[in-house]
From TrEMBL:
Domain of life: Bacteria
Solute-binding protein family domain ranges (all copies): 96-446
A Pfam cross-reference name: SBP_bac_5
UniProt name for this protein: Extracellular solute-binding protein, family 5 middle family protein 16
InterPro entries, sorted: Peptide/Ni-bd, SBP_5, SBP_5_dom, TAT_signal
Organism: Pandoraea horticolens
Cell membrane in keyword set: no
Length: 549
């Protein structure tokens, strides 16, 4: 194995995102032939079978649009990524793999990156995919919307030829950080010829996307499903294997369980049924459970404190409230033991940046009461103050957590008005109107912290109407400066220390608090093969999946 830059062993393994997979990552870092062909990768398994219809779902509801530029949550993420592709992906072994890029090279000062694109790729309408498409996306899609602060140091993006793009930055950009942008959850590529000169947010093409992916848009039946057809001109001629893909939504977890049992549903991602049902389903012999595939999308459930509201805008009040929350009870009762207490926005599943050295808030109602008394908020007629708690009920567990939190807070003298709301109303109340005191929500954390995790805590993460960003209004110059340094630091050891400092400050100020590191799982019929070949399976293109007879 060749060390591509004379790095120390620790630095070298850091770039791979997983020490056990340093060899794979090393070849990516700048050598020729850095990936086995898709055909070679498939050959390691049984020969895939062509044909059939795959029906897929997830543990949530229908999206507001099939593609939402810059995010919009897990549902549009799932529907869009079968059609729209990225430049890179992170596979199930935590190694970067090519998609529409075949090589990514950094200059010696980490201020310039040269990206070589795959040739002979077509958009679904027959137009060629070229470097101009990438330049458009970087300038008009990623920088202003999808990547945000991750590309704020970008000075220039240009084409060298039809299949080469050069990105120049005003400051150094860490290599792992840059490749994580290219493989990022929201950094898909849209066709310039259909978007240039139009509002990317409101473009009607968002509901009938045109991409380069293995699946082509067919039909969206509102309230039921979206149908896809195999892309016969896909750049990997062997894929996809099924004839059709259908992403369907069920209104409740019990319906998904029944659909899995009958075979109406083939594979379902992101905790599609209550954890209590897993053992029963697996015992049928027709359904398998898989927990891998979420390494770059670690799920958490959060409480978010609106900094614009009286009482909860005070740090000492937020810290007191956290002592009233029994996370073990939440895990055991609501998640049936499938999870771990979260201690900070960086999770234990992150091998690069996790630290346990942060302030913690063990369950201690007596301490919570004492802290609220010390904050000058005594009980009057049994209540200290009142709050509005919004539980975004896109997961069954969130509604139950809202009910638990209402009781836990009332136990320490806080009167709670609980609103458990549907997806559309929750998005509006939390992220557009900021109409809540405390909100129960969720996010998925990738391995790279910037910008997906950090934007919940930085001032530039406050974007009114943008879902799953800084809706709390928290703004701290020290946090902003810390994240700015994390964004440009290329020394891996120093960058890890900055990440730990970020975790400690976030766990001290607690504007948004992950409560549980949820154990994510996929359920599939036993004839569904290779459905989890990504570190973020819900956003995988499902090009590898095939159906055994």
């Amino acid at each position: 194995m060749r060390n591509p830059r004379g790095l120390s062993r620790r630095q070298f393994l850091y770039r791979s995102a997983s020490g056990a997979l340093a060899a794979t990552s090393a070849t990516f870092a700048g050598t020729a032939g850095w990936l086995a062909s898709p055909a070679q990768a498939i050959a390691a398994d049984a020969a895939p079978r062509r044909g059939g219809t795959l029906v897929a779902s997830w543990g949530g509801l229908e999206p507001q649009a099939l593609f939402v530029p810059g995010g919009g949550g897990s549902s549009p993420f799932m529907t869009s990524t079968k059609i729209l592709e990225r430049l890179l992906k992170i596979d199930e072994k935590l190694a970067f793999q090519p998609v529409l890029a075949t090589d990514v090279r950094a200059s010696s000062d980490f201020k310039t990156y040269t990206v070589t694109l795959r040739k002979n790729v077509q958009w679904h309408d027959g137009k060629p995919f070229t470097a101009d498409d990438v330049v458009y996306n970087v300038q008009e899609h990623w920088k202003p919307i999808a990547a945000g602060v991750a590309l704020k140091a970008l000075k220039r993006v240009s084409t060298t030829d039809a299949h080469t793009v050069k990105l120049e930055f005003s400051t150094p950009v860490p290599e792992f950080f840059f490749k994580s942008i290219l493989a990022g959850q929201y950094q898909v590529l849209v066709p310039k010829h259909l978007y240039a000169g139009k509002d990317i947010i409101t473009n009607p093409v968002n509901n009938a996307p045109i991409g380069t992916g293995p699946w082509k848009y067919g039909q969206w039946v509102r309230g039921s499903h979206v149908a896809y057809a195999r892309n016969e001109q896909y750049w990997n001629a062997a894929q996809p294997y099924p004839d059709k893909l259908i992403i369907r939504w069920w209104s409740d977890p019990a319906s998904r369980s029944a659909a899995l049992e009958t075979g109406e549903l083939g594979v379902a991602f992101s905790n599609p049924v209550p954890a209590r049902d897993i053992d029963r389903l697996v015992k049928t012999g027709k359904i398998a459970v898989e927990t891998k595939g979420y390494e770059n999308a670690a799920w958490t459930v959060t409480v978010e404190f609106n900094q614009r509201r009286e009482h909860v805008k005070r740090r000492e009040v937020r810290q007191a409230i956290l002592h009233a929350i029994d996370r073990k009870f939440i895990i055991d009762t609501i998640y049936f033991g499938r999870g771990k207490p979260a201690v900070s926005p960086i999770f234990r599943s992150n091998p690069l940046f996790f630290t346990d050295d942060v302030p913690k808030y063990p369950f201690d109602p007596a301490k919570a009461n004492a802290l609220l008394d010390a904050a000058g908020l005594p009980r009057k007629n049994g209540s200290r103050f009142s709050i509005n708690l919004v539980a975004a009920a896109w997961f069954e567990e969130n509604a139950k957590l809202g009910q638990y939190l209402k009781q836990a807070l009332q136990d320490i003298g806080i009167t709670v008005k609980l609103d458990s709301l549907d997806r559309a109303t929750s998005l509006k109340r939390i992220y557009s109107d900021y109409d809540y005191d405390i909100a129960v929500s969720n996010f998925t954390a990738p391995l790279e912290l910037v910008p997906v995790v950090t934007q919940f805590y930085t001032t530039d993460g406050i974007v009114k109407g943008a879902a799953f960003r800084n809706a709390t209004g928290y703004s701290n110059p020290a946090m902003d400066a810390l994240v700015d340094r994390l964004t440009v630091e290329t020394d891996n050891t120093k960058r890890q220390k900055l990440a730990h400092d970020f975790a400690r400050l976030a766990a001290t100020d607690v504007p948004l608090v992950p409560l549980v590191e949820m154990e994510s799982f996929t359920l599939s019929r036993t004839n569904v093969r290779r459905a989890t070949t990504s570190a973020n399976v819900q956003g995988d293109a499902l090009a590898d999946v095939w159906l055994a007879s």
